[in-house]
Amino acid sequence: MDMTIEQQPPPESSGPPKQPIKNALFDPIVAELDLRVFRRKLNVLPDNFNPLDPKLQVDDFVRLGLPPRPSDADALRLWLEMIPPGLKIMPPFEEGNLGVYMLRADMAVGVTRFSADQGDEDVTQARVGWIPRGRLSSSRNWSGAAIFANHGDRFSQVIASWTVPEVKAGDGDGPWVCSTWIGIDGFRRWMKSMPQMGTTQIVGDTGERDDAGNLLPQYFAWWQWWLRGRTIQVPVVFPTATIAPGKKVYCCVTLLPPDQPDPGDRHHVQFFLRVDGTGYPVMLAPPPTNDPADIDGGRRVPASGASAEWILERPTALHDSPNGNVKEGDLFPLPEFASAGADDFAASLAADPDPMVVASIAALPITPSTNFRTPLKLRMMEHRRDPSRVAVIAKPIEAKDGKVTIAYQD
């Protein structure tokens, strides 16, 4: 089908970002984020900053808004690419620059739906600590690659770079949406939370408007700490980061060690986005449990570090699309793209699986990194009519070393 959709241009880098129309359903989310997001002003990155200075410790990097430095050679190489000389740090929500949470009301990301096709392994039944070597599984909305920590290890940091794919109208009537992201955990049913971040690409009208009635950007970067069982959870947009097809982005998710970013803190996560010459750090506490008995919200659900993944996803629609083709709760149709994937990927391991005693990822003996040498690969399936069949619509054609490539299947 040859269908041309007029693309909305990405927002200009100057001037205030367009804000979505306020949604009363988001009030509890905003109130919770206000309590969890770290807002204290960060130190200024020195002009003569040397990221390899051996005197720099984990807390030095955190105070500068940078991901802690890994020691493994593969992870360090990618980390250095992410932090080039002259990098400008722009915290979206620091003290004195509180900003506005830009929440997308049109989609939800993070929940995987696995296929029950005969012959495909259901990864939710895979043994903990076991890495399926070369196995291929099926999902209705995920395609990509995942790795699992062996018993006694946990992932403490995952870094990836990729080129934002250019998307076009896919099969059917749209709107078409895909998200590309990295995450820690979320892959097995017992994993209760998943910090994740990435980019989203849209073709067509999902119904999201700003206060002036204009479509929101159709390419954007976001972060989210997904919590299993939560009814409403949406990606939080990096409001001033300009995302466009062909741009290279670097994303890093770090499980911070104890007493970071402040003394007494536990289980905080740092999200770090680098696009063009600017880095955008966000740090926040883990989400509160969904348990109704936790009245004061004092119990938290930290990440366990059991898996790390790079995923291309079909998000779930949170309301009907304007053209009526996509209903609330449906998966968005997949847009067409030549290929998408991680140009590079590294996940650092820490030796202590106890979530209360997270070893510093700066210590050389406990920070080997791993990539996609032995991944679980995921292909995306869709049920189609006329004739009725299950079709592969996206699959990894390469997933090894630090690279994963997803191909669109027409």
TrEMBL record:
Region (Disordered), start-end ranges: 1-21
TM region(s), chain numbering: none
Residues in the signal sequence: none
Pro residues bias spans: 8-19
GO BP, sorted A to Z: proteolysis
MF GO annotations: glutamic-type endopeptidase activity
Cross-referenced Gene3D superfamilies: Peptidase G1
InterPro entries: ConA-like_dom_sf (IPR013320), Peptidase_G1 (IPR000250), Peptidase_G1_sf (IPR038656)
This protein's name: Uncharacterized protein
Species assigned in the record: Reyranella soli
Species classification: Bacteria, Pseudomonadati, Pseudomonadota, Alphaproteobacteria, Hyphomicrobiales
